[in-house]
DNA sequence: GAATAAGGGGAGGTACCCCTCAGGTTTACA
DNA sequence: TGTAAACCTGAGGGGTACCTCCCCTTATTC
């Protein structure tokens, strides 16, 4: 299962549980607005907790990120489940992407999270691996049905996720539904009947991986 | 003329001129690699100059940016001139975008610069205004010829610039020509034939402007 | 070669942010 | 109710970056 985030050991004492929850809530808020690089000190402040307490509960930023993104991941997974049950492969593909982008559009941190990889963290690597497999299978199904053009690959969809992410960064405040326009425009590019030859091969798996890592380092 | 960057008053003394040039060279290097938010202290260091000297020559970051981007702007303009001379409107449109993206791909700072607006700076506002007009006219020409779909607008092309920018950020090191694949994929979405209806209206001019400003604030 | 204006240097103030750790506080449990 | 373990706090060390300002240096000009 993709979204099964390993539980951070829950604290035992009542006050600790309460602080833990306040931290997660503050983190969700801050990450959603400012992205995965939100200030941890600001999160602690919002939670009304000292910075040391934040570190006691979540020793690394990634621990806090995973706790904060748990609901987003579930939200995505529920939508994805509905999508793959759709009989028509193209409709399923469209629905899958629309669901993904909707979740992505609602949370800047999750948006960042989707676009990157964090090598060295087994937890996130597993989630990303599974998502890639999932996306690839939805795409392949639409290709086998002759509805999606046959020359696109997972890497092109990841690129779409990047594009969408950037669009959301830009328009999130100003034109919050604009991402749907962009998606449907791109869908016209993906239809089999509109395909023209492409000048460059798709990225290899390795190139794709490196590119996702690079997005994280660059900031 | 788009690219006519106002000369920063050239310094008078020989040593000052030399430092000025070293600063511009270092800035081009740093901005190209790290984007418009490159550290000014690093630029001064690279140029072998004290930070105070940098500020004497370029009181604001934007002054230095404009000096550094001058050649990029010229490079773009020369290519653009060739593009609009192409007889076939669609070919001209494609060539225009390909030229723009090539320049964008070569310089991360210029990439940032293209995607944003800097309100309050008359110089850059003028450049951006002119570029928008220019892009719109190339697009309109291809639409009047019935080659580009009629329901796309300048805002959609700016979105393409954003998308391309993000792709370059991700793949610049790993797969440096991948942006061409993405462009040609998008071109299939822009062709008039068999266009499918879009679910959202294009951004208004104001929304577009705000979105470009927002990208700058967010970082 | 002296006077002077232009230019250069860089320490230091401000503001973030990350993360640790010693010492004080509170809960839970017997 | 007393004690031990769990927990909390926040000052503080380390880092980065922005920008200013005063004093010193140097090119130019006569």
UniProtKB/TrEMBL annotation, chains A, B:
The record places domain HTH tetR-type at: 17-76
Give this protein's Gene Ontology molecular function annotations.
Answer: DNA-binding transcription factor activity; transcription cis-regulatory region binding
- Asked whether the keyword Transcription is assigned, the reply is yes
Per the UniProt record, the source organism is Subtercola lobariae
Protein name according to UniProt: TetR family transcriptional regulator
Which keywords does UniProt give here? Answer: DNA-binding, Transcription, Transcription regulation
Q: Which domain of life is it from?
A: Bacteria
Q: In which residue ranges does the UniProt entry place its DNA-binding region annotation? A: 39-58
